[in-house]
Structures are given as C-alpha cells and as structure tokens.
Amino acid sequence: MISRIVLGTVQLGLPYGRRRSLPPMPEVAAFRILDAAWALGIRAFDTAEAYGASAERLRKWSEARANLESLEIVTKVALERPDLIAASLEETANEALERFHGTSRLTILSHGPADPGRWASIVAAAHTYNAGVGQSVYTAEEVRRALMLPSVERIQVPGNVVDMRAISARGDNSAKLDVRSVYLQGILLESPLRAEKRAPGSGKFVREISSLAASLGTDLAPLLIASMLATVRETDRLVIGVDSVEELDSVSAAFDLSREVVQEFTGNLETLAGDPDIEGFLDPRAWSPRIVY
Questions:
Q1: From CA 187, how far away is CA 199, in angstroms rounded?
Q2: Scanning 5, 146, 160, 244, which has the fewest C-beta atoms within 10 Å of its C-beta?
Q3: What does the alpha-carbon distance between residue 9 and residue 239 come to, in Å, rounded to a whole number?
Q4: In which region does residue 201 sit, left (phi positive, over 0), alpha (psi from -120 to 50) or beta (all else)?
Q5: What would the DSSP string read from start to end of 136-184?
Q6: What pLDDT does 269 receive?
Q7: CA 191, CA 153: separation in Å to the nearest integer?
C-alpha cells in the first residue's frame, strides 16, 4: 500500500501551507524528511521547477544516498518561465528531466493545463528521456480537456474528502491520477480558528470533522488519507506533503485503520459535505494570500 503514496516536496523548497509565514526549511531538515520517507518505504517523490529549492535538494539528497536508480520522480515544468523567456518549452522540459535522468521511473507533467501545441513540446521531451507524461491541473474541466490529448498517462489533481470534482471528471477513462491537496493545503488539520483565518468559512467544517475523528478514537490526518485511498482507484496515488518527520507517522497510521472506522467516517462526511458553505473555501487559489499548487 505504501506504493500508493507519493511524497510531495514543495514544503522542502519554499515556505508553503502551514509554513507559509516561516523562513525556508533548512536543507538538513529537508534531508531528514526525505530519509524518513525512504525508511517508511516511499519511493515516489513529486517536485516542480516552481518549488523553490525542492528539485535541487531532491537531486542532491539522492546523490548523497546513492539511491537514484531506486527512485520514481514526478517533476512538473512551468509553461512560462520568466527567467528563460527565450528558451523553448521543450528545452525547459529537457532541463527538468535531465536533473533526474537515471531514476527508475521518471514522469514529467505540465504545471497547469497545456494547449495542444505546448503539449506536443512536453511529449517530445518526455520521449527523449523515455519518461511518462501528463498534466497537473486544477479543475474538472481541465481534467476533461487533458484526457482529450494524446499520450496522457497520468494527471495530478486536487482532491479530498469534501472535494471530488476533479477526480470524478475522469469518468471511465483509464488514465491514472495522483491526488494532491488531501489536507486541503493543511486547512483540514488546522485548529478551527486558524483554519477560518486562512480560508473564511472553513472553521465550522474543521471543527466538525475533528470532533468526528475524536469520536472514532483516532487522529484526523490518517483518517483523511485512508478515506481517500479507499475512494479512488487502486491504480491511483496520493501526493502527501509533510513539514516534519513526525508528520509521516500519519501516513503509516493510515494503513492501520480498520475498514469499519474508515467507512463510519466517510458515511458521516456525506451529511457534512452537503453544507452549501463548503463550496466557498475549496479552492486555495481564491484564498488570501493566494496559493498556487
């Protein structure tokens, strides 16, 4: 089951989520998290050129541990890079792939929806490195458009226990999903007061799901992970970002939860998810400050 977990690394390269107001994570702390994830059995790692020092640190860590050939890397390339205005998208994609050349499995995603012309450039770069190819998108409509493009193997989408819109947009298509934002950028794990400050309207819901988890005698984070694993296809994966080694305990704890506990949690969520106020805080891009992921 651990093969269905991808470690998200945005927190390792820039202030993000619940660390958004803190200085960048020290490299030694990032390496500790990567080491702990490796010890847990995680072999797939998600990064992007837009994630600050994330990609560089991930490559440096893999070289120091001599485990490059055992890694699976999913890397995202921005469709527009202001520091490389003159460079073609294919060249930019080649740079992203070259950084991790030699891994056991390499996938490149467009960081956002790509039109057919740009998509062709990304596919060309993927073929050069014998890499998988896909898109990292945000909305249900973007998922549907991505599925119409040739060669799409994997789509990264936001999804959590109260927002299945992008996941459901796949329909019967066989494309595999990597589901990010399982904690809704950390909002679902905040205290109700802090959640409300970050995303107005979320405090009430956070209070209710926290109480529900407590009534089941378990922590909320592993419940959120286990519930999503039980909901998506077995070929799909979850992209989980953590701020500390200790937070990885929630990943392992998710696999220890009984089916009955997970079913009771998700059953009760059906009532909570019907609250019309939820719609107002589901998209982090609308929060203040604006969050792009």
A1: 8
A2: 244
A3: 9
A4: left
A5: E--SHHHHHHHHTSTT--EEEEE-BTTB-HHHHTTTT---EEEEE-TTT
A6: 86
A7: 38
Residue where the block lists tokens 């960081």: 111
Can you tell me the distance from the alpha carbon of 146 to that of 64, in angstroms, rounded to the nearest whole number? 37
What's CA 200's distance to the chain center, in Å?
23
Residue 5 sits at φ, ψ, to 5 deg, of -110, 130
Report the number of secondary-structure helices (H) and strands (E) in the chain. Answer: 12, 8
CA 291 – CA 293 distance, rounded (Å): 7
CA-CA distances (angstroms) from residue 70 to 38, 106, 199? Answer: 10, 11, 39
Task: State the sign of the Cα–Cα–Cα–Cα dihedral 242, 246, 247, 252.
Answer: positive
The dihedral sign for the CA sequence 204, 207, 212, 213: positive
Structure-token pair, residue 238: 């979850």
Distances (CA, A) of 183 to 64, 68, 83, 208, 224: 31, 29, 32, 15, 7
Total number of residues shown for the chain: 293
- pLDDT tens digit at each of 293 positions of the chain: 899 999 999 999 987 766 666 778 999 999 999 999 999 999 999 999 889 999 999 999 999 999 999 999 999 998 875 554 445 888 889 999 999 999 999 999 999 999 999 999 999 999 999 999 999 999 999 999 999 999 999 999 999 998 999 999 999 999 999 999 999 988 999 999 999 988 888 999 999 999 999 999 999 999 999 999 999 999 999 999 999 999 999 999 999 999 999 999 999 887 776 677 788 888 888 786 655 45
Output Rg (C-alpha) for the chain, integer angstroms.
Answer: 18
pTM value is 0.92
Helical packing angle, 203-215 and 220-231, nearest 10°: 90
